[in-house]
Amino acid sequence: MASVPTPHNDALEGQIAPLVLMPGDPLRARYIAEGYLEDVTCFNGVRNMLGFTGTYQGNPVSVMGSGMGMPSIGIYSYELYNFYGVDAIVRIGSAGGIGDGLRLRDLVIAQGACTDSNYARQFALPGTFAPIADFGLLRRAVESAERLGVPVRVGNVLSEDAFYSADETGAARWAAMGVLALEMEAAALYMNAAHAHKRALAMLSISDLVFTGEALPASERQTSFTQMMEVALSLAVPEAEK
């Protein structure tokens, strides 16, 4: 394990749980820690990328912001996997819905993550890598959603480099290929997990509908995705305890 703290994370060895929930917004990380966890300690404040460790139903879990975009989650997830011994990261973020029938606040779980990024180039692979979720986490998340009565869609998403894209027709072309939602982080997380032989999953609440213009305000994105949070937190509870 590399020397810690790092330039981006104040935590010392042993302060971060094996499972980390990772919203993009550090204020959502604080909301989850204060609203759902017990015995909470803040392990990181560098660049205000807040990170907390506590317990959920007696089980250790951490929650930390990732920032926006693949370069940002790439840094934080790399350090968590490779420097802090984290086994699994579950991204709990927002996304723009493009799949048929999606509504605001619907839950999408990313089985795979297409991307227009060159993030995979660093691995010098002799072909195109397909970033996918850990099946065990995916299966458990779907089962938890069903048990909690939370409707869920499972499928492909697109991790984009540009939030404001100059290509005004791209979303429709991705939708025609069955892609459910647009976001900016899952592909890099899945690649880092694969390279580190660790686990990852992205769960996304629909914050806006790309083709209709419907959207939630920033304040609601911080606090209203409770169903996604509860499904993600359930992954901290061993299956034998459920």
From TrEMBL:
Origin species: Olsenella uli (strain ATCC 49627 / DSM 7084 / CCUG 31166 / CIP 109912 / JCM 12494 / LMG 11480 / NCIMB 702895 / VPI D76D-27C) (Lactobacillus uli)
Keyword Glycoprotein set for record: no
Catalytic class of the enzyme: transferase
Matching Pfam families: PNP_UDP_1 (PF01048)
Taxonomic path: Bacteria, Bacillati, Actinomycetota, Coriobacteriia, Coriobacteriales
Keywords: Glycosyltransferase, Transferase
MF term (GO), any: uridine phosphorylase activity
Nucleoside phosphorylase domain span: 19-226
Name of this chain's protein: Uridine phosphorylase
Family: Belongs to the PNP/UDP phosphorylase family.
